Amino acid sequence: MRDVLMQIVQWWETGQRFGLATVVETFRSAPRPPGASMAVLGDEAEGSVSGGCVEGAVYELAQEVLASGEPVLQRYGVSDDEAFSVGLTCGGILDVFVEPISRETFPELGAIAESVRGREPVAVATVLSGPGAVGARRVIWPDRSSGSLGVARLDEAVDDDVRGMLAQGLTGVRRYGARGERRLDELSIFVNSFAPPPRMLVFGAIDFAAAVARIGKFLGYHVVVCDARPVFTTAKRFPEADEVIVKWPHDYLSSITVDERTAICVLTHDPKFDVPLLEVALRTPAGYVGAMGSRRTHEDRLARLAQAGLSEAELKRLRSPIGLDLGARTPEETAVSIAAELIQLRWGGSGQPLTDGSGRIHGHEPHA
């Protein structure tokens, strides 16, 4: 829903009633992940649930849902014939939940939008199927909740689980018993998490950093560029960065909180900058720590870090030389190779050409 959130809030604020279709579960080579949404108002549609494969069928279903007022959970691509009839020729399966939305049915939508704008984590839990009230919704923040799924014990169980999912930025279906029993699976609940964008910390105010900042922003990161040299570390040189910090890199990294979703890109390849910085970086829970430099620079860097007291396990976390081997030469090509490595690590892909492989293309689950 993040892709269409600002548009649907405008409709919601003016009192209009519209249909919202959301991918809640996928199987095989589905083109878009859970959480992808399309909103329908009259003859207008915003967003996408399949990159174009089943949009027409979902649009028609949204019109039916608006007419009946009843939410519907619909599967697309169950068989080859059905996949062809709706255009899902990639062979995947999508479960799409379509519901009518208005100020009356979804009073918390404005608060959700405010949280997203303010980078406050928030999640929406919705009953999809089972003995509960289909379409019942509960909105969960780290410190509060609103709405109910119908049973207090179910609300409590979902609150606990969703806060764990929010911490990791996870979206997906959870299953419970009718009263919140975690050992049962008769009730399906979709959890749509709106965690703040993950951060990309780019150290080194060089031309490669400008390209990495651009592609990091394109991938949805909150991008920070940091360097100790004020003459190079300016907002004018890094217009795509969300923050430009003039500070010694290791001092800055020591002063902030880093989580598992953070990507750290060390592009300084200067020992006086990168060794103290990597001492700090490799002891954080950051999901990615990469450093630029030749293989000779890498070996020298490892020796210096070992002398500084880093363990073998900590050193193994370092992705260096940074990026996948694409034969990159220019700053822009190098940025693509770094982005490719981030994507490969997130989804567990092989990094090999798709033409040399077999099996599902979109079948990977995200890594924590």
Plain-language structure description:
It is a single chain. 33% of the residues lie in helices and 23% in strands. Strand 11, helix 6 (207-218) and strand 12 (222-227) form a beta-alpha-beta unit. It has eleven helices and 16 strands. The chain is elongated. It has 368 residues and is of the alpha/beta class. Helix 7 runs parallel beside helix 8. The strands form three sheets. The protein has a six-stranded parallel beta sheet, sandwiched between helices. Strands 3-2-1-5-4 form a five-stranded antiparallel beta sheet, with helices on both faces. Residues 11-77, 117-177 form the XdhC- CoxI domain.
Percent helix: 25-40%
**Radius of gyration, Cα only, in angstroms?**
23 Å
Largest sheet: 6 strands, parallel
Question: What's the tally of helices?
Answer: 11
Number of strands: 16
Overall mean pLDDT stands at 90
Strand content: 15-25%
Q: Which strand order does the major sheet show?
A: 13-12-11-14-15-16
The SS-based structural class is: alpha/beta
Terminal Cα separation, in Å?
21 Å
Protein name: Xanthine dehydrogenase accessory factor
Domain XdhC Rossmann: 200-342
Organism: Streptosporangium lutulentum
Pfam families: XdhC_C, XdhC_CoxI
Give a brief outline of the structure:
With about 375 residues, the protein is α/β, with parallel strands linked by helices. It contains eleven helices and 16 strands.
Helix and strand topology:
Blueprint: H1 5-13, E1 18-27, E2 37-41, E3 44-47, H2 55-68, E4 72-76, H3 80-86, E5 93-101, H4 109-117, E6 122-129, E7 137-140, E8 145-147, H5 152-168, E9 172-176, E10 187-194, E11 199-203, H6 207-218, E12 222-227, E13 243-246, H7 249-255, E14 263-266, H8 271-281, E15 288-291, H9 295-307, H10 312-316, E16 318-319, H11 331-347
Parallel strand pairs: 11-12, 11-14, 12-13, 14-15, 15-16
Antiparallel strand pairs: 1-2, 1-5, 2-3, 4-5, 6-7, 6-10, 7-8, 9-10
